[in-house]
């Protein structure tokens, strides 16, 4: 079966951990965006969910930092962070090891990827799952793109990874959904935490939902760091989704800067053609 759903969303820990401190109108609008995405995934008939994330030194550190890694575990646990801090209870999530192996084998025809049979999910995956699979009843395949420890994968490689993932998904008999999870402009764990560059965000999202490859790949890391903070490096997860849906356009279900969540909060879907 072909890929049946593609989208992208924010994964900031404040979305669940500081929900009570946010503007309720903006918070509820964001939550409704997540709910619309959840319903779209369910209506697509997806049998497995691939989450393309950017983790935060929870499993990969400077002694071993793959550019791309795909989970191949029977099960995963998360969140690795304190449950009360994140507002999500620790649980076990089913994997899809046979499907993962087939995807990895196919993707490696184009992109060298690492794999991991053990993986503890941090907020980068757990926040999206909290909204998109609230019963944790869909097998999950985690993907990590190194957005944390330079040297980072070039943007054109993130695009190519997305294209290779699409080919692999289309070759599988299972119906597969993919979601890219990350921030756009944000400055986490710095004195500028809570700062959001709305103009930069909206320009990036316009390029994303219109799938303008040349413009999406035109950002340099120096420019991104200046204009969108080190958290802006996570645009690689969105770009991978754009690569997987090359030629298609999408829709922004929600965008608003929410400073207490420390990011321009986003939920978007891409058409699958």
Structure description:
It is a single chain. By secondary structure, this protein is of the alpha/beta class. It has a domain at 3-173: LigB-like (Protocatechuate 4,5-dioxygenase, Chain B), CATH 3.40.830.10. Helices cover 37% and strands 21% of the residues. An 8-stranded mixed sheet has the order 6-3-7-2-8-1-10-9, with helices on both faces. Strands 4-5 form a two-stranded antiparallel sheet. A hairpin with a 4-residue loop joins strand 9 and strand 10. The longest helix has 21 residues, at 24-44. It is globular. The two termini are 13 Å apart.
Q: What's the helix-strand series? A: EHHEEEHEHEHEHEHHHHEE
CATH level-4 homologous superfamily of the domain at 3-173:
LigB-like
Helix content: 25-40%
Q: Strand count, sense and closure of the main sheet?
A: 8 strands, mixed
Reading off the top of the CATH hierarchy, the class of the domain at 3-173 is best stated as Alpha Beta
Looking at the structure, the CATH topology of the domain at 3-173 is Protocatechuate 4,5-dioxygenase, Chain B
Give the strand line-up of the largest sheet: 6-3-7-2-8-1-10-9
Question: Alpha-carbon distance between the termini?
Answer: 13 Å
Compute the average pLDDT.
96
What assembly state would you assign to the polypeptide chains in this entry? single chain
Number of helices: 10
Shape: globular
Radius of gyration: 17 Å
Percent of residues in beta strands: 15-25%
Low-confidence stretches at least 5 residues in length (pLDDT < 50)? none
Number-wise, the strands total 10
């Amino acid at each position: 079966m072909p890929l049946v759903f593609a989208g992208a969303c924010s994964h900031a820990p404040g979305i669940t951990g500081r929900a009570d401190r946010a503007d309720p109108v903006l918070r509820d609008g964001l939550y409704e965006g997540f709910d619309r995405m959840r319903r779209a995934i369910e209506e697509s008939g997806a049998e497995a969910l691939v989450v393309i994330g950017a983790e935060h030194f929870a499993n990969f550190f400077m002694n071993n930092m793959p550019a791309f890694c795909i989970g191949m575990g029977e099960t995963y646990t998360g969140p690795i962070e304190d449950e009360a801090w994140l507002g999500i209870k620790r649980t076990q999530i089913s994997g899809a090891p046979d499907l993962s192996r087939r995807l990895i084998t196919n993707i490696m025809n184009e992109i060298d990827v690492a794999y991991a049979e053990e993986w503890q999910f941090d907020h980068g995956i757990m926040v999206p799952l909290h909204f998109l699979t609230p019963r944790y009843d869909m097998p999950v395949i985690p993907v990590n793109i190194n957005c944390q420890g330079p040297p980072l994968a070039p943007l054109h490689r993130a695009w190519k990874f997305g294209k290779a993932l699409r080919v692999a998904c289309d070759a599988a008999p299972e119906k597969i959904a993919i979601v890219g999870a990350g921030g756009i402009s944000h400055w986490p764990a710095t004195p500028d935490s809570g700062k959001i560059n709305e103009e930069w965000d909206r320009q990036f999202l316009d390029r994303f939902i219109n799938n303008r490859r040349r413009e999406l790949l035109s950002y340099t890391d120096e420019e991104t760091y200046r204009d969108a903070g080190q958290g802006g490096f996570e645009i690689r997860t969105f770009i991978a989704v754009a690569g997987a849906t090359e030629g298609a356009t999408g829709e922004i279900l929600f965008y608003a800067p929410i400073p207490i969540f420390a990011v321009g909060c986003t939920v978007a879907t891409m058409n699958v053609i």
